[in-house]
Amino acid sequence: MNTENNGYTILYASIMVIIVAIGLAFTHQVLSEKQTKNVEIDKMQQILRSLRIDVNPNEAETKYNELIKNAYLIRPDGSKIEGSEGTETTDPAFTTDIAKDKSKGLPVFEAEIDGVKKYVIPMAGKGLWGPIWGYIAIDEDGSTVYGVDFSHAGETPGLGAEIVNPTFRKQFEGKELIKDGEFKSIAVVKAGQTIEGQDYVDGISGGTITSKGVHAMLLNSIGEYKNFLLKLNAAHKNESEEQ
Question: What pTM was computed for the model?
Answer without folding.
Answer: 0.86
